[in-house]
Amino acid sequence: MVKVGIIGGTGYTGSELLRLLSRHPRVTIGAITSRAEAGRNVADLFPSLRGRCDLTFTDPEGEGVFAGCDVVMSATPNGIAMTHAPRLLAEGVRVIDIAADFRIRDIAVWEQWYGMKHACPGLVAEAVYGLPERHRAAIRKARLVANPGCYPTAVQLGFLPLVENGLVDLSSLMASAVSGTSGAGRGAHVPMLFAEAAESVKAYAVGGHRHQPEIAQGLAQMAGQPVEFVFVPHLVPMIRGIHATLYARLKDPSVDVQALYETRYRDEPFVDVLPAGGHPETRTVRGTNLCRIAVHRPKGTDKVVVLSAIDNLTKGASGQAVQNLNLMCGFAETEGLDEIALFP
């Protein structure tokens, strides 16, 4: 058994971690922290966990909070994990950050987009980017894993076979993606109120979303050179899910893109390539660690359109973190993640 601690367990990613880890056959949860809720029973805040989790929230600065933990997973807002990671790593604890503190290699770029000084820039180069479909071997050996963002997961998995094989014009990459309201977190924000978000769809951060540099970095690493990438996110009136529509220009329109995707993802447990003509839906991945993908060729063009759907809280956050935990601990990659999507 592996003992896992959780920093920041009161948000949506924290509650999703609890849901997944509380039924993981190889994990015990040693501690879960929250400054605001310290001393409160977890099941009082999350009644869905009654009978599944008997922990009490503790203060993250308390003495010996993570004593005996093998891995600590940080489900905090951006800027928090980087203040805990140096001490935890020095104590021999492995760390998975579900926020963005260690995702972007260029510290100046990170500080520009996240509006703060990085607390431990020396660790950024060591951190392994936790997209298993790209970095599985490195994740297994890592002390520090930077869990990818939700939009970056859907977009990178959608583009991966095309970009890593050099099949598309790298100046033609575009993504239009929609997300449910849980992607904004659990805090009180007027745009997320039901009366504001219901029966409406809107684009946001069109001039620059903070996931843009993360996606561009990942695509450039796949391609071995810089890329030009346009990303437009949208808010839609649903709770969970991301659906990304990706566009690119093929260098050789005769390429069998369906076969390409089926071959690339044949052995990936959490990527499901639909048959030709398919259309993934967010409800078919709700509560699962799956990314469902479909590939289309608009007639009479040299373009390819890729559709990618994930649950933003699972494959886009906590589920992928558990997938990385499994890799780091030598477990089967699917341990604790064999959920079937809820329907309807």
From TrEMBL:
Record localization: Cytoplasm
PROSITE patterns: ARGC
Transmembrane segments: none
Alphabetized GO MF terms: N-acetyl-gamma-glutamyl-phosphate reductase activity; NAD binding; NADP+ binding
Keywords from the UniProt entry: Amino-acid biosynthesis, Arginine biosynthesis, Cytoplasm, NADP, Oxidoreductase
Enzyme class, UniProt record, top EC level: oxidoreductase
This protein's pathway: Amino-acid biosynthesis; L-arginine biosynthesis; N(2)-acetyl-L-ornithine from L-glutamate: step 3/4
Pfam family, one: Semialdhyde_dhC_1
Cross-referenced CDD domains: AGPR_1_C, AGPR_1_N
EC number: 1.2.1.38
Reaction catalysis annotation: N-acetyl-L-glutamate 5-semialdehyde + phosphate + NADP(+) = N-acetyl-L-glutamyl 5-phosphate + NADPH + H(+)
Entry coiled-coil feature ranges: none
GO biological processes: L-arginine biosynthetic process
Function: Catalyzes the NADPH-dependent reduction of N-acetyl-5-glutamyl phosphate to yield N-acetyl-L-glutamate 5-semialdehyde.
Record family assignment: Belongs to the NAGSA dehydrogenase family. Type 1 subfamily.
Protein name in the entry: N-acetyl-gamma-glutamyl-phosphate reductase
Organism: Acidiferrobacter thiooxydans
